[in-house]
Amino acid sequence: MADYRIFHSPRLSGEVWIGTAKNAVLPIMAATLLTGEECVIHKMPALTDVKNMLRLLQLCGAGDRMEKDTAVICARNVQNPEDEGLLRSMRASVLVLGPLVARNGECAFSMPGGCAIGQRPIDLHLKGLQKLGAKVETDGGQIRVTGKLQGANIYLDFPSVGATENLVMAATMARGLTRIENAAKEPEITDLCHFLVAMGARIAGIGTNNLTVEGVEEMHGAVYTPIPDRIEAGTLACAAAMTEGSVLLQNARSDHMRALLFKLAESGVIFQEDPKGLRIRGRARRPMEVRTLSYPGFPTDMQAPLMAVTTQLNGLSVFVETIFENRFMHVVELNRLGANIRVEGQLAMVQGGKPLTGAQVTATDLRAAASLMIAGLATQGETVLHDGGGHLMRGYDGLEEKLRALGAQVHKEA
Ligand code: UD1
Asked: For the chain, N or C: smaller number of CB within 10 Å?
């Protein structure tokens, strides 16, 4: 859908605004299906995934209007969505499952798609809904979940972000008490819970691995501004660290970014809290060891962008990817630029310090695209990033424009 031309860039400097978190806004949008009243969401990011989610909500019966960057969504009545293409294109489409079953007693749809970074099954979502009394029938790629939900004790085998979100949404209107143990506690889940509480939900343990939800008869409308995007902020922090820049990430929440910030700091980058956000200064110098984990561990979404930085650090950096089984697709492309990275299973070893040279590379998924853009900032010559799948626009609201505003040489071609 777009190509990007990237040239060796000087030190990035200046200030840049961090937009709303994609991964917070998508479940919050899905949660609006829980009520027939109007919900108002401010500071909506301009992302393809957000547009697709709005379209999906329409298919579910919701009406919406945009007033600048505010979305007003109202799902007076809800129904099953019917558009396989859309459902397959976006993993987050599975998030309408919990709200639709809770409100309507039924949801039938096809298996969700999304980035090709792993199998990404939804067994934990379905198992949890079954615990809540739903009947789950699967036929080919079709799934049908029906039933009146009843509070239950749920233990998640793995703290899945999407499953936690789906189940907490479903539980808000299930009769009685639901406990979700080993829940994920990413900041975006906390944000969703705060939105649900604003809609009338009763949730205890917000921000922990144990959520308790007391079902209510009805949810109501709410007005909300979701949190800033820690992954966009982290990506720009990596770009700054790559170029020995000095960048102020306005609106960034450093408390959501501890794992990345401490890795960068170990490597020589300075970060400072600022009344306007977070300042990143200096250069990453020392190699790193990174293991992706559930929050508050190192986020898998930052693995690819940070790996680009480590290609320029003298010595061996090691990445262990424990969340997704196929999330090293950027490695082949980084190596095309001259990096020396070897993958063995879930382990990537980066022998850093080799200069990069411009080449044609391909974006295979969202964070891989960001990784290649960061690498391009340090290459000699021109790097052409082919993003035929429009991955970057799915999850970053004008990343290339923000980088350019900081002095980077990045140009987008339609
Ligand atoms: C969300 C984020 C994504 C991020 C990921 C991990 C959104 C829209 N996306 O994705 O950017 O990379 O969290 O932080 O918020 N799994 C199962 N069974 C399930 C569910 C998940 O086996 O039912 C596995 C997945 O295949 C994967 C791992 O658990 O290997 C993590 O998935 P999960 O936490 O659910 O991530 P998503 O919600 O898909």
From this structure: C
